[in-house]
Fold this protein.
Amino acid sequence: MRPDDLRQSATEYARGEVARGLLTCAMIVSGTAEYLHGEGDPADRYALAWEIVPRELTAHLDAQAEWPARTDSDRLTDAFRALDITGIVAREDFACCQSCGSSEIGDEVTKGAPARGYVFYHGQDAERAAQGGTLWLAYGSFDEQIDAAQVGEEVVAALRGEGLEVDWTGDAAQRIHVRLHWAKRRYGRMAAFPVGAEPGRTVHVQFVPGRQMIIPPMSVSALAALELPWLPDDTSVRVDDGERTVTIWRERHRLISDDGRQVGRFEGLRLLGGQDEGEVPGEAGLIEVTYQCMPSGPQQVAGRPMCLPEILAVVRRLPTRTDSWLAAVHDAGIVQMRLENGKLWLESPFVAESASVGKYASLDETERTLTILATENRNAIRELDGVTTQPW
């Protein structure tokens, strides 16, 4: 492939993955280099990916600053959540293709929460929509008493109820066509990228425990920008630049090295470069989050810092009938939730009282409680109407 064609192909791939909104900068760099597999030297492919991906992320963040407060992608998520609550299993970006999605969607139904139907769009659908196309939805029935067309009618009604434009003839053999402008926002770790050119040589990076995702070859500046601020709370990273080795872990808003130095979580370059630690800035609103989209969706089993918009986006995408859960840990307390049979149980544990305080809450109550935790640095769970105390 000619150099210009190679660059164009890599740019189109990276742009689509940035828009799709599933992967971090480092993951997209890895994917872009793999997409170009067989085209020249691996080091050159990674260098090209490191040049292209941050630029595409910059363009995406500039564009999203001009988007309306509620995008078509938000409307789609809200429609899917409403359908999921009522017993139609609704999954976004589910499986790689329609064949795999159709064979796997039944596994999303739990014994305690039977479902009458399903709707999903798969990874290839998401790729096309993220690249500027429209979206096609697959749907069907789990109940012999309900035909697929009835499920399709409910799906169309939910989509139109959120203000989306839908084309469907009513034929159960036809997928539902949604005319939308794909617009998924990026926040926090998903919006991070190294600023400026990539200085310095590549370093060897090893995460402990080893379940940490595989990252592409990167410099210390990229590592400090993309990984160190969001290290899981059970993970350390060993960095070897060929001259010295340092092990770093995160405790709340601090990064700590094995020689005892401490810096703020966005100042990892000081540790990697052997510099003095300086004053560690505080982060009053820092929230560490764990969550799991049961039974087979995304999960974060060790605490990572997340900003409020990130947290709210995850909450809106949690499956509502499969015991999915999320826990948000702040210095002011813990707010946690579990979604079961279409209802959301919201609570806070109080160790000194050996009890939890909570209620079945609305999405609005849940978002308001998390917002107060993040912005006012206090736990407002007791301020909700109808909370009960459950002794341990």
Summary: The first strand starts at residue 88 and ends at 91.
